[in-house]
Amino acid sequence: MADIAKLVEELSKLTVLEAAELATALEEAWGVSAAAAVAVAGPAAGGDAPAAEEQTEFDVILTGDGGKKIQVIKEVRAITGLGLTEAKTLVESAPKAVKEGVNKAEAEEVKAKIEAAGGTVELK
After folding, report:
1. Contact between residue 62 and residue 114 where contact means Cβ atoms under 8 Å apart
2. What is the b/e burial string over 70-104, where b = at least 16 CB atoms within 10 angstroms of the residue's CB?
3. Residue 23 and residue 117: Cα distance in Å, rounded?
4. How many helices, marked H, and strands, marked E, lie in the chain?
5. SS3 content of the chain, % helix, strand, coil (to 5)
6. What pairs with residue 62 in β-bridges?
7. Dist CA 21 CA 13 (whole Å)
8. Tens digits of per-residue pLDDT, 44-96?
């Protein structure tokens, strides 16, 4: 039990981006995916609903700046290449799409970057 507590303590020190990279590395090493567990749980709750196909394109939606508007604006600018005014408008009009139709890896990377800056993000 002491080893588990020590591991939890060490993992708690990870940044959001490091935690996302760890999750990806574990998925690859173990041949599993967190998304697969959700897909399996979905039909059980819905009765005889048809099995959902795995989503391949995602929209990264900024849902808030978390009180760190300037840092989030800077990160949105770096991600999108928008000018200062456009990035500020996007952040202030949340919820708003930052990236649309991107693959899962890019969506997770963008989400991690924005969350590291203090913003809140939702993947759809």
Report:
1. yes
2. ebbbebbbebeebeeeebbebbeebeeebbeebeb
3. 20
4. 6, 3
5. 60, 15, 25
6. 96, 121
7. 14
8. 455 555 555 677 788 889 988 888 889 989 988 998 888 899 888 988 988 88
